[in-house]
Amino acid sequence: MEVMEILENLRDNYFYFIAMVLFIVGFHTMLTHSNLIKKVIAMNIMDTSVFLLFVSIGYVHGAKPPIMDTVQPEGVYINPLPSALIITGIIVAISITAFALSLVAKIYQYYGTIDADEIAEIRGSEE
Amino acid sequence: MYALEHVLNHLPAILVISLFVFAFIMPLLFIWKRDWCVPVATLSMGLSLAMSLALVIQVNQVGTFVYHMGGWEPPYGIEFRVDYLSAYMLLVLHGIGLLILVYSIGDLKKELADRVIGWYYTLYLLLMGAMSGMALTNDLFNLFVFMEICAIAACAIISIKEDRECLEASFKYLILSAMGTGCYLLSVAMLYMITGYMHMEKVAVALETGAAEYPYNVLVAMSLMVVSFGVKSALFPLHVWLPDAHASAPSPSSAVLSGLVIKIYAVAMVHLIFRAFPRELFEMIPMLEIILWLSTLGIIFGSIFAMVQENFKKMLAYSSIAQIGYVFLGIGLFTPTALVGGLLHILNHAVMKSMLFMVAGIIIYSSGIKRLQHFDGIASRLTWTMVAFTIGGASMVGIPITGGFISKLYLAQGALEVERPFFLLVILVSSLLNAFYYFPISINAFLAEQKREDITFKPVLKSMLVPVLILLALIIFLGLNPQPVTNMLEQAAEMLFE
Q1: Does one domain contain both B243 and B312?
Q2: What is the pLDDT at residue B450?
């Protein structure tokens, strides 16, 4: 593939590209950072990137929002299904985040730190 | 009569919903009438066991049937599809789930604080409902939702014990699970991009032409799916969360997590492989080959890690990594016989491992012993418990007349059918490794002298011992008389492969 072609593809589908970059940022931070709060934040970035990708799949360039227009019923609507699904996805992500944060709070109470490496050290010295 | 017919028509939905409804009644009951919690939870599990039996009978009569949520036909509505595999899985889930629930009544009084016992049953029933949904659903996004409910409930029944170890293990599990579901959702997005459907069979039809047009999308989607289900069901290099999580959880939670939760993801994966992807795709993309090799590594390394553990529950947890490898070996070999072996191992391992975790729970409950080096001579005090452990260990190794032997036999036959005797060798070597770490414990427990005088043994409650003995009988029954199960699974495999 020509370089120009790749660049053009990127320009036309930049929302996919941004979603992928966000996904990798989230994925990498979640697995490599030792701060538990940062892990939770990264989890949210990762989830949000998938939501962005999903919603942008349903987008049709120049189309109307999917609301019945009685005056002008003709015309193209965007695909409402991804948006509807992602609302569910957002709720799920919120509940996971809430649960994760409450766990972090409890972990701080018991270990006095929210750094995964320090926790591993404490557990290692206990055994 | 008319009402009964209505109930039968909506059985798949009622099964899932009733568990969720009972789950949310639990905390209310706990405030209002504390003593009712346990009987109502047992009633709920008993009802769902009856319903899964009814579904098994229905499937045997009419074959695969579908249920449309709210009467909406796909692609608009969500479809539940009841085939032999999902009916079988429901029966396994609720049968063993009920026994674990009965066991938990005695065990939880010791392991949990009084104020959270009602909440424990909420989480337990939520977990069961989510797993039933995963076995039934035929919709990619619906599967995602059930996976997330299952992940939250599974993490919460670990962290509910609230000690230092549990909290850390549960957080690790939660983060890796969230990564798994994130990957799954991304892969669904990739498939939706090409096909425009969420319904599994419609996706497969659309992929037949779409895969050639967008090969990279399909490749990314499939690899993300392997990663996501690999993390969830602890396929070898993605298993890091499992030992801590399963070893530190309260014993009934360990039993349900090791026995059922990691299996349900394997079943969901089987459904995805056979329903959502056209068969030709697997010739282009070596997804099954990758699963096959990862499971082989898991079988060998899981056993080796288990050998060096000193903590009893940690050893059982590592052994789960090896055993889930057998299930994936059955999937990866991709022949009906091996698939029957893998699916049969889901039942066998669920029976053995939940029994062994209950045994661990009973030993901790009675004497507080957690480390293997203190096991010397405890069989003189906990005879039935250690008999159960020995039979469970023998079944793990695959000694004839136990259930584990039958599933390994099917797997070995499957490996020979596709002419890859190497995997037969893998099964043999791993059985040998299993024997190395299960039998010395039994021998020490029965024959060695009890060295420590300072350990006192509390009497074991009947409600804890009875489920163990029922599972013990089941192991022997499955070893002597596997036909009813294998017949059903052979039909399931035939249907999936056709």
Answers
A1: no
A2: 74
Give pLDDT, residue A71.
79
R_g (Cα) of chain B, nearest Å? 22
Contact between chains at A96 and B178 (C-beta distance less than 8 A)? yes
* B1 and B88 co-located in one domain: yes
* pTM score of the predicted model: 0.94
Same domain? For B333 and B199 the reply is: no
- Alpha-carbon span B481 to B470, nearest angstrom: 16
The residue with tokens 């579908």 is: B66
Residue A48 neighbours by CB distance under 10 Å: 18
Residues of B in contact with A103 (CB under 8 A): 155, 159, 167, 170-171, 174
Q: What is the nearest CA distance from A72 to chain B, expressed in angstroms?
A: 25
Q: CB distance from A99 to chain B under 8 Å?
A: yes
Specify whether B247 is located in the same domain as B315. no
Closest residue in chain B to residue A91, using alpha carbons only? B145
Domain membership of residue A12 as a residue range: 2-126
Q: Which domain holds residue B237?
A: 1-285
Q: Which range has the top average pLDDT, A2-6, B315-319, B363-367?
A: B315-319
At A25-67, the pLDDT tens digits run: 999 998 899 999 999 999 999 999 999 998 888 888 888 888 8
Residues of chain A with Cβ-Cβ distance to B170 below 8 Å are: 103
CATH of the domain at A50: 1.10.287.3510
- Given pLDDT bands bounded at 50, 70 and 90, which one contains residue A127? low
Element (H, E) at A42: helix A36-58
Determine the distance in angstroms separating the CA of A69 from the nearest CA of chain B, rounded to an integer. 22
Alpha helix positions (H), B280-335: 281-284, 287-307, 312-333
For chains A and B, count residue pairs whose Cβ atoms are closer than 8 Å: 81
For residues B51 and B22, state if they share a domain.
yes
Residues B352 and B412 in one domain: yes
Question: In Å, how far from its chain's centre is CA A65?
Answer: 23
Cβ of A111 within 8 Å of Cβ of B164? The answer is yes
Report yes or no: B34 and B143 within 8 Å, Cβ to Cβ: no
Please tell me whether residues B253 and B371 are part of one structural domain.
no
Best to test chain A binding among B140, B146, B186, B197 (most A CBs inside 10 Å): B186
